[in-house]
Amino acid sequence: MLSICLLEADHLRPELVGEFHSYGYLFQRLFARQPIPVQVQVFNVVDGHYPPDHQRFDAYLITGSKADAFGDAPWITRLRSYLQTRYRQGDKLLGICFGHQLLALALGGDCARSPRGWGLGVQDYQVLQPEPWMLPAKSTFSLLVSHQDQVTQLPPDAQVLASSGFCPVAAFSVGQQVLAFQGHPEFVEDYAQALLDARRLAYGEELYRSASATTGFVHDGEVIAQWMLRFISQM
To answer: What is the DSSP string of the chain?
Structure first.
């Protein structure tokens, strides 16, 4: 059985906790549905929780967050340093949204607020670099997203795996050690819509309505979950 250390980089909005609990819970539920057995242990890094030094995992996964990956809050700088240590020690690292951007920064790339504005709802991506662990194989995939920051420069030795006109670096890898996606495989329709509803005034009515029209579209969160697990195990 694979073991994943899930570094939870946020707390859900209070009004959403009752139904959706936490990002850790959403990932545990997603991975529990996959054909590859995995055990996920959650540590909320915003609260300063990390695994003991002696404990090792098959991979470390950084979740999304409302925070900016380029922010300088103490918990963000500590997490960035922790990931650099894990990378130097050869551990496998996976990132989603904020985690995708933070890994790019930690390993020598860059990210910034996108001039394209918010990416919301279901978005489509083209696979640029097929890999053996991408099973089931797909030339395109769709994911629920919620972001206004993007990776703007890849780390050394990284390659872009997937892209779109809105998000040129939608997924990247560094060898067989790092894998990151801008989209959210753990999101479900109800959570994505609830998040849109909670931020409706901030988005504006036009963007809110166009994004809401897509949340019920078919997306490939289950496929990306399998890709991540196969990347870890190289099955």
So the answer is: -EEEEEEE-----HHHHHHH--HHHHHHHHHHTSSS-EEEEEEETTTT----TT---SEEEE---SS-TT---HHHHHHHHHHHHHHHTT--EEEETHHHHHHHHHTT-EEEE-TT--EEEEEEEEESS--TT--S--SEEEEEEEESEEEEEPPTTEEEEEE-SS-S-SEEEETTTEEEESSBTT--HHHHHHHHHHTHHHH-HHHHHHHHTTTTS---HHHHHHHHHHHHHT-
Which residues are catalytically annotated? 97, 184, 186
Looking up tokens 């990776």 gives 151
Per residue of the chain (235 residues), what is the pLDDT tens digit? 899 999 999 998 888 787 778 899 999 999 999 999 999 999 999 999 999 988 999 999 999 998 888 888 999 999 999 999 999 999 999 999 999 999 999 999 998 888 888 878 888 999 998 999 999 999 999 998 888 889 999 999 999 999 999 999 999 999 999 999 999 999 888 888 888 888 887 787 887 887 778 887 889 999 999 999 999 998 5
* This prediction's pTM: 0.92
Cα 173 to chain center, whole Å? 13
